[in-house]
Design brief:
By secondary structure, the protein is mainly beta. The chain has one domain (about 5-115): Thrombin, subunit H (Beta Barrel). The chain has one helix at about 45-55, and strands spanning about 10-20, 25-45, 60-65, 80, 90-95, 105-115. Strands 1-2-3-6-5-4 form a six-stranded antiparallel beta barrel. Strand 4 (about 80) and strand 5 form a beta hairpin. The longest helix has 9 residues, at about 45-55. It is globular, with a radius of gyration of 15 Å. The chain starts with 8 loop residues before the first strand and ends with a strand.
């Protein structure tokens, strides 16, 4: 059975919005857009890290989604929160793959792990 049939992780997509804090100032609030989206989270390869670093973009992980499982469009700046570990990853870039033979299309998010 291929890995894409049973992705090992689930994430909640959080979208940044502007809100007001107790003092009346503005603050960034992350509102959930969709939850329990199946995916696969991997550490970015050295070549991916170097490619983004050349453009002064910090990428530490790649999150892969089956294109058919995404019910919302992902945007740079969205935060993906892993449902099992609560780790958060800020989306820096999005790449879409095409289906090939019996392999379905994927959407790849290049992300920065937020500590």
């Amino acid at each position: 059975m291929p890995l894409y049939d049973t992705p090992p992780h689930r994430v909640t997509v959080l979208r940044p919005t502007t809100g007001r804090d107790a003092g009346g100032g503005t603050t960034t609030v992350y509102a959930p857009v969709v939850s329990a989206v199946p995916c696969s989270i991997h550490t970015a390869s050295a070549s991916e890290v170097a490619r983004f670093a050349a453009a002064q973009i910090r990428v530490t992980h790649t999150v892969a989604f089956l294109a058919d499982t995404l019910s919302v469009g992902l945007l740079p700046g969205d935060v993906l929160q892993a449902d099992d570990t609560a780790h958060r990853y800020r989306v820096q870039g999005i790449r879409a793959g095409r289906p090939y033979g019996h392999v379905p299309a994927f959407v790849y998010c290049d992300c920065e792990h937020l500590l």
